[in-house]
Design a protein that fits this description.
Shape: globular
CATH architecture of the largest domain: Alpha-Beta Complex
CATH class of the largest domain: Alpha Beta
CATH topology of the largest domain: DHBP synthase
Number of strands: 16
Number of domains: 2
Radius of gyration: 20 Å
Strand content: 15-25%
Helix content: 25-40%
Length: 330
């Protein structure tokens, strides 16, 4: 199969719609990461997502829709707090999980009675979703457990020859996947942290919990169970308090002739001034936006990525630490 990379325009969007409606897969940009989309009503197409990615069959998918799509045919029991959250934060990097009406393929939710709905804010994602005018089931457009893609070239590196089309919307601005919020209870509960923080949700909903999975419990959201976001090289993760030890390991490995790179925020970089640096930036938003790009850069350049956790770990940084721990800390 030949994989095309095309900028979204009238012709490429029409091609994307034709592929989707014939049961194929299309990679498309969002404000967080690139998604690998299929018609959520088409069970065979949804199953092909799992096959192309090598994704575990018990890891549910998220359904993407354009901002005017009527989700009442897909979900039921939308609480008032969810309507307020949608008004405040959608379109945007927030997935809300509701009771499913069973309209989408059972493969989307892996046997759960719920389904996650997302309305991405990326204008070209909206253009794609409007053109197909179908709910699109989409995980990240990469090989399962590899670093999530934030450019079309990242998608191509993983899926060339496996899918027919990548819509190139430039580099994703957000950088980490959407917050996943369980909206089936009296109080919303975060299943996966992201750019819409617990504090932001509680400000609108009045309260917000954080789900802690128990051993053996069925996965309720993407990104909860398996090793994820991992570069194809060795990794090490140090706490901020152990940053001096991280730099010591960096010097030791480079002294032995290995290509070790220090991945850290600007404050830690300024403290140690390493020559081999994967700089994440200064603000939480910059660090989130750069994380996957720097992990991908690191796997091209390094034998070992030595990551140092940022000092601050609240708000957006809770989502960053979730990804950083899964990518580099096991």
């Amino acid at each position: 199969m030949q994989t095309q990379i095309l900028e979204p325009d009238g012709g490429s969007l029409a091609l994307a719609a034709k592929i989707i409606k014939s049961g194929g897969l299309v990679a498309f940009p969002t404000e967080t990461v690139y998604g690998l989309g299929a018609n959520a009503f088409d069970g065979d197409a949804v199953h092909s997502i799992y096959e192309v990615k090598g994704r575990p069959q018990d890891n549910p998918l998220i359904v993407h829709v354009h901002k005017d799509y009527d989700i009442s045919g897909i979900v039921c029991d939308i609480p008032e707090y969810a309507k307020k959250l949608a008004e405040k934060y959608l379109p945007g990097p927030l997935t809300m999980v509701f009771r499913s009406k069973g309209a989408v393929s059972p493969a989307v939710s892996c046997g759960l009675d719920t389904v996650g709905i997302r309305v991405p804010s990326h204008p070209q994602a909206q253009a794609f979703l409007r053109c197909v005018d179908l709910p699109i089931a989409a995980p990240s457009a990469n090989v399962s457990k590899h670093v999530s893609p934030v450019t079309a070239r990242h998608v191509y590196a993983d899926l060339n020859g496996r899918i027919p089309l990548i819509l190139d919307g430039g580099k994703c601005a957000g950088g980490i996947e959407s917050t996943v919020l369980d909206c089936t209870g009296a109080v919303p509960c975060i299943l996966r942290s992201g750019l819409v923080t617990r504090e932001m949700i509680a400000e609108v909903a009045g309260d917000c919990g954080v789900f802690v999975p128990r051993p053996g419990e069925k996965v309720r959201s993407p990104g909860m169970k398996y090793k994820h976001y991992s570069p194809d090289c060795r990794t090490m993760l140090f706490t901020y308090a152990d940053r001096a030890a991280a730099y010591g390991e960096y010097e030791r490995l480079n002294g032995e002739g290995q290509r070790a790179y220090l991945m850290c925020d600007d404050a830690v970089a300024a403290e140690f001034l390493p020559d081999n640096l994967l700089a994440l930036g200064k603000t939480p938003e910059q660090i989130a936006a750069n994380l996957y790009d720097k992990l991908r850069e690191g796997e091209r350049k390094a034998d070992v990525i030595i990551a140092v956790a940022p000092e601050r770990q609240d708000g957006v940084m809770a989502g960053v630490m979730n990804r950083l721990t899964k990518a580099c800390g096991g």
